[in-house]
Structure formats: C-alpha cells, structure tokens
Prior knowledge:
The protein contains 1 helix and 26 strands. It has one helix at 2-55, and strands spanning 58-64, 77-82, 88-92, 97-101, 107-111, 124-129, 135-140, 145-150, 155-159, 173-178, 184-188, 193-197, 203-207, 209-210, 216-217, 220-225, 231-235, 240-244, 250-254, 271-273, 279-283, 288-292, 298-302, 317-321, 326-331, 336-342. The model is unreliable at 1-19 and 21-54 (pLDDT under 50).
Amino acid sequence: MIEFRLLASRKTFVGFVMGQIIFSIFYLSFYIDNFHQGTELIVFGQQQDQIKDQAENYTIERSWGSTGAGDGQFMNPHSLAIDRFGNVYITDTGNNRVEKFSSNGTLLEKWGSKGNRDGQFDQLHDIAVDLTGNFVYTVELANHRVQKFDGNGTFITKWGFGDTGGAGANRRPHQLAVDSHGYVYLTDRGGSEVLKFNNIGRFMEEWGTHGSGDKQFVKPHGIAFDSEDNMYITDMGNSRVQKFHRNGTFILTWGSYGTGNGQFSDSIPGIAVDSKGFVYVIDRLESRIQKFDGMGTLIAKWGAKGSSLGDLNKPEDIAINNKTGEVFITDTQNSRVQVFQIK
C-alpha cells in the first residue's frame, strides 16, 4: 500500500508538473503569437501615422500668376522645367508662349506667338531643359514637332516625327525629357512608345507597345530621369508608373487605379525626380501629389482641390529645384505656379 501510494504520488506529481509545463508552453506560444501580431499592428499603425504626419509636413512657400495675357500671367499654364541655375520655364499654352522666371517669380524672358513658323507655337504642351542649362526643348501637339532654343528663347532647330519608323502623322508625343548625355526622349501616346533622338533631332530608336504588361503602355505621358539616368514614365491608361534604364530595359512598376495611398486616377500627367532619387507624381483629377522612393514606396502626399493658397485645381506638371529642395507645380485651372517646401 505504501509503495502504491508513493508511486501514485509520483505519477500525480509528475502529471501535475507536466501539465504545468504544457500549459506554460501553450500560454507562452499564445502570448508570443499575439505579441507578434500586436507588433505588426503597431508597426503598421506607425507606418500609417508616419505617412499621415509626412502628408502634413509641408509648407507653401510662394505663388505667382493670374489669368491673362500680360507679363507673368497665364492662360492654362501646362508644363514647367527648372535649369541648373534655378530659372523656371513655363509653357503658357493658352497664350502660345514660353515665360522664363527667376525662382522667386520675377519675369526674365518670354517668347512665342501663335503660328507654325520657327519660334511660334500651336498647342504648346511640354518643355525640358538639358543639364547644362543652355538648351530648352518644347513639344507642340498641333504643329507636331519639337523645337530647340537657347536659354533666352533664340531658335536653334526643329524636327518632326515622320522618320521614326512608325506612322509619323499618327504619332502624338506629349512630354519630353533630356538624359545626362543630351539625348531627348518623348512619350508617344499615339504609338504607345518612347521615342529617342539626339540633341539635333536625329531619330535613334523606339520601344514599347500597347498593353498593360511590362514595357507596355496605354497613354504614356509624363517622363523624368533620376541622377543615374533611370527613366520614370506615367502610364496614364494603366494608372501606374514604370521605371526603366535609359536603354529601355524594364526595372519595375507600381500603382493601380484608385484614390488610396499609392494609387492613381487615369490622369497622372506630371512626374519629377529629385537629386536624392525621390519620385513625385501629379494626380490631376485628385488634385494631389504623391512622393515615393525609387522603388515605389509611398513617402508623403499632399494636395486638395480648391483655389486658396496651397490648394490645387487640376495641376499638370511638377519640377524640383535641387539646390533648395523646393517643389514647383503648374496649378493649371488656377492659372498660377505654386512652390512648396517638403520638410
């Protein structure tokens, strides 16, 4: 009897200890699992809060322009570019001219009038400046050509698109950009392609097809280069951004249709990249700007529709002054340029 009780006690004791161990393991596992999930929720919440905080972490520095045809006025200002000296070039589309300003909005030069002769414009759409700051390129929809000027508006040369190997008359180049080697690239909405020229208009190559796959486009529009000559294109019809090497090799894509973080409408005409590799995308219909890193991760966002200082109404284009970090935007329907500082 004594031996049995001892054995039973031992079994009872061992069972009790094992039960406690099993319970402890179960509880610890449950705790760790829930702690891990909680950590994920905390991190996700922190990321969302960070985006929210950064979305509000900007200031409106200044604004200039009003509706009209006088000096410093605009009729549907569409695109802009900034040279290495900080000068700002605006396509004053409704007035068929280019206006050049200092970074604080002082008018420096203006040129152009309606027509199809050298130095004239019809449906002036986009403008770009090379890295030297010496040459300015424009593209017109109605005159179906690129014109090249010096920084003061003196005409240098021009070219069309009939020698590009496609249906020249059906090409619809909308925006252009210049890489660090001086080559000029245009987004062609008509052919769903990118066209490459040298700096005097000799056609070099083309790439892209119509569709929604990698290296395919539906209404390609905005185009910009980073400091390593990677190319970013707003693929408007697919509500996304595509990133390429300058030779056309596909790297990555991001975006989808919608109004959430990292999503776009089907009207994203303007794109710019700063010296740190951050990518800024204009959403015209949402009247907002989203800022991403070079891999498509959302960093910040801002903008709301309106006419008050800091509000936007169908903005079209964006450019960065890399010396000051300021962001310049053509606030098209408000006939003005607005300048923001992102902190």
